[in-house]
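Lay summary. Proteins are chains of building blocks that fold into shapes, and those shapes determine what they do. In this project we predict the shape from the chain. Here is one chain we studied, written as its sequence of building blocks.
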Amino acid sequence: MNRIFKSFLFVIEFVMCYLILSGQLLTECVIKQVFHIACPACGFTRGFRAILSGNLLKAIQYNLLSIPVFILFIIVNGYLIYDIVKDKKKTDLFFEKLGKFIIPILIILLVNMVVNNVRGI
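And here is the predicted shape, written in a compact code that computers can read:
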């Protein structure tokens, strides 16, 4: 990705995160509306809000993966900012390395989806 695209991506991501986390943009899970089951990401918005207010236990209750995904989100955005400022490719390398773990990641997401549905999130 080039520097201009990364800058644009960061601004769009920041605006979307602000609108979603502030509650100004209503987000309903399409999978939950259509199929009446919780997807692996159900509860992330509430979990992220709980993390930002310092309530880690509540974040885990909303979605078990809230904290690890939040940390991943911070790391990726740190790399993205570094790439924009220094015109480097750390984000690309990070995703390339993360791609090697796609099967375990998919298994974790599937298990999380089952847990979310059993717990009735």
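What the prediction tells us: The CA atoms of residues 37 and 117 lie 6 Å apart.
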